[in-house]
Amino acid sequence: MQRALAEDRATEDVTTRLLGTAARQPAGAAFVAEGRFVIAGLPIVARVYSALERDACFEPGGADGEWVAAGTVLARVRATAGALLAGERVALNFLQRLSGIATLTRRAVEAVTGTQARITHTRKTTPGLRALERYAVIVGGGVANRGSLAEAVLWKDNHWALLGAGGLAPALAHAPPGVPIVVEVEDEAQFERALAAGVRHILADNQGPQRVAAWVRRAGAGVTIQASGGITPETARAYAEAGAALISIGALTHSAPAAPIRCDITHAGSTPPR
Q: What is the mean pLDDT of residues 80-102?
């Protein structure tokens, strides 16, 4: 958040300086939904304004994770006009971005309702914003996935290519104790080698629901099958019904559309927007 304010040079707003003494007068801001979506990021808005002005007053109009309708006032902020203007774009950027991710995630979660499948994210996140974007996925009802290269072993296509088909089992024998192991497979041969190596979490990458269902049956109850690769909220149900325990969707963080939100600022004597 501090980096975002610094990037925008929020304390050096040459336009707001043209307001003269009006920039130092009390004012109010209302963040208003312009469509239906799942809200995420309200605590970040509060932190943006507290960083700009210690006495800024933040009043949420809802809570992260709620569906909101067009016209809903998501939050109100009281501060000087200058502080409100300085933080407006940064606050909107966070709120729109995180709400968009939460909304897309919720749609995927709702699509698999009634199954055992859980929706999760990938590492295809905005550089520097992964923690916030993962938070938005969780707010939307998804579950956390590997957040960094250090959190789990994830053997992928390039690892297969570098060590060859026979390199999997010897390599995994040297995995750090207690670190989760996931092996991505793209064909029958890799699937069989993963099972032979005792892998308990297999990621079926770019496979259709029918093949996922077949692999779920062959792997048995003790092996987690995760589906990934080009899956959308619209296609997630088919993978859930195929028996995938986890469904990872990169689009949650790399392609979620921003939620439509505006910020209305009025001076202290005006009637605040509703």
A: 97
What's the pLDDT tens digit per position in 8-53? 798 888 998 888 998 899 999 999 999 999 999 999 999 999 999 9
Task: Say which of 64, 88, 133, 184 is annotated catalytic.
Answer: 184
Q: Considering only CA atoms, which of 171, 118, 181, 112 is closest in space to residue 146?
A: 181
Superfamily designation of domain 113-254: Aldolase class I (3.20.20.70)
* Catalytic residue (choose from 124, 146, 200, 211): 124
Q: Indicate the pTM of the whole model.
A: 0.93
Burial (CB count within 10 angstroms: exposed 0-12, middle 13-18, buried 19+), residue 14? exposed
Residue of 146, 156, 200, 211 with catalytic role: 156
Q: How do the domains of the chain map onto residue ranges? A: 2-108+257-267, 113-254
What is the C-alpha to C-alpha distance for residues 87 and 45, in angstroms, rounded to an integer?
Answer: 9
Known catalytic residue at 156: yes
205 is known as an active-site residue: yes
Q: Where are the alpha helices (DSSP H) in 53-185?
A: 81-111, 130-139, 157-163, 168-172
Q: Is 124 a catalytic residue?
A: yes
Of 108, 131, 116, 160, residue with least CA distance to 41: 131
- Decide yes or no: CATH 3.30.365.10 for domain 2-108+257-267: no
Closest by Cα among 227, 162, 166, 228 to 193: 166
